[in-house]
Amino acid sequence: MRGELLVTLYDEDDNAINSIEGTNMVCVGGAEVLVDGLTVSPSLSGIATASAVLDTSNYTIHGISFGKGYDGYDSYAHASSVSSSWSVTGATFVNTVNVVSGFNPTAVEGVLIPTFPHPDDRRLQAASTRSPIASATISDVGHNMNAIEFSATNGLGISSLGVGCFPPSGGIHLYYVTGTSNDFVMSATFESNFNKNHLMDPSGILTMTVTSISEGGSLADFPHNQGLYMTSHKMGLSSIDVTGFSGTDGKGQIGYNVVLSGGDFALPNAYGGIYTLGLWCIDTKAMLAAGITPPFSFTALNNNRLYKLFAKKVFTKDLTFTQDNASDKAGLINTFSTPYGNPFGSGSGKTFKSKIQWRISF
Amino acid sequence: MSLNFVEQRNITGHLQIARIPKHGGQEEIVFDDHNIIVSGMGVGLSILYSLSGSSNITDFQFDRFQIGISGAGVTEASSVYELSGPLVTSEEYAGTAGGLITVSSTQIANGSDKSNQVFGMIPFSHVTRVNDTSVRYTIVLDEDSANNIQRSSVDRPLNEIGLFMKNPQGRSSDGSLLVAYRKFSDITKASDFALVFRWTINF
């Protein structure tokens, strides 16, 4: 098993402006789940209450997560200047529409290169990713959480704003200020396609949608309002072609695709960017041991699925990187960026986007 | 700098063949080497992960095998999709005592189906999880099995074996897929010994 990724960055008008590609790291968790499936007893089919354990989907990939270097979780939001003092007016910061006075963000700055990947990795970052303002250990999941949407129920409360990293379904306000003079330059409300469609759980796992769309070159082939799309690279999903497989023509390849757009692009950018990706499969064995029985349906609010890391990818480039054209900000990575289409004007409502195509070959 | 040596998880396998004398005596290892994971493994797993085939995970299990007599001329490569000369009847597999369970079903071959192929079954009790990422399949050809195989009145030794995925497409009638293959030195099976194939697949 091996995998390759192609990430394409688009501007606000859906013009491709950059791409990054590379091979992934297939992790041991995927092999373990596969062996779980290959050794589950067929006799369970005769037990009405247990036969659902044999459902094929219990042993396959079901989600993707996004992260950055573990040290990027020490701070809350996004710096406007590497030299500024971290005050409300000195940093680009996030704030909800309805809440928060007195929430003073610090900043995430610089290039947050994650630790190197290893085949035995069980999460995207092995070191703690707990936010310093969130005492609850639930914030230590190894990747970007989806805490803000679930701040009322996740035990983090207001600390959810510090944890991040995706907008709530009702939107979130993002304020941008310049790094040198602390001038307010832009604010906008960003919404989350993922949360509006209830596709991401509190821990930051974006669930998968099985589709029959083909993998094409156009951004329009990948609807933005859904989660992780599974496609076949060279075959229609509904009719896997088993003819002519003696060659090495790429058959046996599956694509997992997702588009980060709108607030799902802008907020991770503000929280330090996205440098790591993880594909997750369901850990049926662990769920059965925990008394969780199938069907293992996904609900964003109360997702009781347990996952194992199937594969991961570490980039040295932020997948939400956008370089501002203004002379005083050009070239700064993660210190000021403009995912909003027309940030200094009336605003077009468009954002930059990242299209992630992850192909697993078997 | 290339990191491919750790970035991929290559599925590998190992086959050990033991000769067990009928009236006691020490087990003799007659073959001990790696196997060939063939392209059918990739096809089967892609059907599994794309959720486009059977909805029952047991259809993706390796529950059957074929043994053959024409392995000598086979070039072992991932492009192998069938045995060169598998045994063709239940009687050839199980002999007169019928201790070995067989089944006749379709084999998914390269570009076409082959119907009425005979497979030996691997009981689930002979499937062992060696560790978190490895499974061992123990195939037993007892004293009565696969003896006196002839073609054109000429005795033919056993020299190839294949491991099959049960029914990945979830057909109403099983359509099995070759996932691993290995040829081995000629073994003329007789009634005074059994053969035990210990086949470990590492994922």
If you had to describe this structure to a student in words, what would you say it looks like?
The complex is a heterodimer of chains A (about 350) and B (about 200). Chain A has one domain (about 1-360). The radius of gyration of chain A is 21 Å and the shape is globular. Chain A is built from 5 helices and 15 strands. The longest helix of chain A is centred in the N-terminal third of the chain and has 11 residues, at about 30-40. Chain A has about 350 residues and is mainly beta. Chain A has a 10-stranded mixed β-sheet with strand order 2-1-15-12-11-10-4-13-14-3. Chain A has a 5-stranded mixed β-sheet with strand order 7-5-6-8-9, with helices on one face. In chain A, strand 1 (about 1-10) and strand 2 form a beta hairpin. With about 200 residues, chain B is mainly beta. Chain B has one domain (about 15-200). The longest helix of chain B is centred in the first third of the chain and has 11 residues, at about 40-50. The mean pLDDT of chain B is about 90. The chains are: A mainly beta (about 350), B mainly beta (about 200). Chains A and B meet through strand 3 and helix 1 of A and helix 1 and helix 2 of B.
Instruction: Tell me the β content of chain A.
Output: 25-35%
- What general outline of chain A do the C-alpha atoms trace? globular
Given the helix and strand composition of chain B, which structural class is it?
Answer: mainly beta
Oligomeric state of shown chains: heterodimer
Shape of chain B: globular
